[in-house]
């Protein structure tokens, strides 16, 4: 009689001596012992009856279930002996695959890294290594297994976030806030404490919204990035790291205000402040308004005087080009050197000292082709008069 007691039920894979419990590819309970594998044939109240999973082999095994611990002990082997030799190598591979499958379902660790970790951990015999599938093929198979566990993308804002998606790969909190906005939408902010700490320490913060890689039920993904100089042996490397990710249901000023306030509240809870010297973003009008709303930039009634809001030169350049196209000048820009030259002069105004921008605009108004008159007037009305030179210069 065997008295191997297991600490987990049949749903898991647990090695105790030479015994393992797992699942077959079709989901049936599988017991592995001494190079032989048995599938569950039937079960009673406390007894489980197993049969060798090799075709034409009628060897059996009986286990008793311990009700108090929900573990199992092997009671007796059947009278019929195996018709084949044991295969320790195949059993090792089955244990390895079962462990990887379990982690693939329960964790968000990249599949390739997960496979590599388990291969190091299990220390397979040479025979098992020869029988094992190529790692690249295993990655594809386990990726399909993970895909089965990934929930469908929600079709409405009324959904519950699975717990594993609220944590980092290190099982730390990742979901910072999940709130209903003033306008009735939903605002999700994701950031770990480590990321927040880096964000709040950074003097320069970059933020941007993207609309193309966001689920349809949300309007945009808005990200905050820290600016950092990594001092190397010979070079100072400038790096930008993503620190916070916000899913926004709309582009309303109140939503941006709430997003900023949530970050400031998180800073207070970490006994610090969210007050970078410079906050650089695109030229989203709602965000610009949000930054100037009185309560958006007050922390316990104290103004954040060190934070200067600047626009991104990349977005400034793209905004001017889009306007040029909307004015019907796309073909002229392609074919006429004058149009190209004066449009580039307009972009270059952002690189001049602030006190020289007005004179530069007057020179552009005098020298640009007549067909660019509406475009140049737009630059003056919107970028000079409405947005203000300090935002984009």
From TrEMBL:
This protein's record includes keyword Zinc: yes
Entry annotated with the keyword Zinc-finger: yes
Residue ranges of every copy of the MULE transposase domain listed in the record: 206-318
Family annotation (InterPro entries): MULE_transposase_dom (IPR018289), Znf_FLYWCH (IPR007588)
Entry keyword set: Metal-binding, Zinc, Zinc-finger
All residue ranges annotated as the FLYWCH-type domain in the record: 21-79
Pfam families: FLYWCH, MULE
Highest taxon above the source species: Eukaryota
GO molecular function, one term: zinc ion binding
Record's protein name: FLYWCH-type domain-containing protein
Protein species of origin: Rotaria magnacalcarata
């Amino acid at each position: 009689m065997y008295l191997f007691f297991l600490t987990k039920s049949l749903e898991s894979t647990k090695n105790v001596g030479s015994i393992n419990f797992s699942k077959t590819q079709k989901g049936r309970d599988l017991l592995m012992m001494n190079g032989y594998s048995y599938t569950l044939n039937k079960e009673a109240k406390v007894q489980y009856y197993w049969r060798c999973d090799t075709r034409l082999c009628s060897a059996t095994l009986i286990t008793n279930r311990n009700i108090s611990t929900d573990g199992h002990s092997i009671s007796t082997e059947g009278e019929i002996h195996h018709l084949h030799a044991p295969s320790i190598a195949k059993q090792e591979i089955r244990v390895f695959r079962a462990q990887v499958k379990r982690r693939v379902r329960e964790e968000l660790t990249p599949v390739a890294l997960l496979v590599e970790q388990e291969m190091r951990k299990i220390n397979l015999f040479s025979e098992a290594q020869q029988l094992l599938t190529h790692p690249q093929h295993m990655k594809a198979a386990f990726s399909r297994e993970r895909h089965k566990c990934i929930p469908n993308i929600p079709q409405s804002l009324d959904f519950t976030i699975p717990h594993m998606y609220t944590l980092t790969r290190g099982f730390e909190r990742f979901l910072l806030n999940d709130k209903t906005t003033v306008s009735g939408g939903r605002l999700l902010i994701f950031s770990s404490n480590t990321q927040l700490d880096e964000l709040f320490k950074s003097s320069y913060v970059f933020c941007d919204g993207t609309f193309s890689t966001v689920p349809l039920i949300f309007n945009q993904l808005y990200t905050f990035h820290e600016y950092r100089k990594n001092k190397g042996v010979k070079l100072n490397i400038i790096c930008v790291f993503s620190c916070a990710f916000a899913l926004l249901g709309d582009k309303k000023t109140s939503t941006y205000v709430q997003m900023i306030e949530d970050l400031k509240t998180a800073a207070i809870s970490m006994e610090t402040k969210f007050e970078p010297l410079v906050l650089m973003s695109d030229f989203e009008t709602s965000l610009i308004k949000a930054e100037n709303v009185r309560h958006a930039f007050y922390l316990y009634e104290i103004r954040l005087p060190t934070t200067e809001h600047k626009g991104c030169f990349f977005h400034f350049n793209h905004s001017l080009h889009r306007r040029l196209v909307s004015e019907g000048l796309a073909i002229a820009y392609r074919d006429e050197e004058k149009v190209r030259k004066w449009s580039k002069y307009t972009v270059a105004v952002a690189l001049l000292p602030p006190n020289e921008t007005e004179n530069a605009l007057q020179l552009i108004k005098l020298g640009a082709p007549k067909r660019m008159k509406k475009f140049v007037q737009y630059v003056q009305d919107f970028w000079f008069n409405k947005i203000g030179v300090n935002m984009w210069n």
